[in-house]
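Quick log. Single chain, no ligands specified.
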Amino acid sequence: MGGSAMEAARRVLEQAAEAAPPPTDGLPSGFYDAFVLRGIRVHAAEPGRLVCRFTVPSRLLNSGGFLHGGATASLVHLVGSAVFHTAGAVSGSGSPLEMNISYLDAAFPDQEIEIEAKVLRAGKAVGVAIVELRREKSGKLIAQARYSNYLAPSSNL
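-> predicted structure:
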């Protein structure tokens, strides 16, 4: 990478970091999950399937004014982890193993979206699910993900 390209990348990242409020070291554990999930509602739950509704809040928007890709990935992870509970699977660590997300459309502020997760397989140690985010009114797909999660209980070693 050339010096000017490296300098440009450094400048973009440092400017974004400077624009953010100063870090708070005293944030409680789980703060980020609660920050993303605040306002989520479980609409339906059955074995192997979970449907949630969520109104896109301004706190989760990117600089373009629509739902940030990182917030979308967090919703995939959190709802994807939760769906394994509907299948009776143990989720000790809730650690994602893999997420493959296709971002297909934008979700805008105050727009109602539906997040549906379906278990494809819940084994002894690994579970696989499909998670889709859709516009609630039109059903238009916003993002589609395949999500795998470590299910085995934590070791006592």
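Helices lie at 3-19, 31-37, 69-86.
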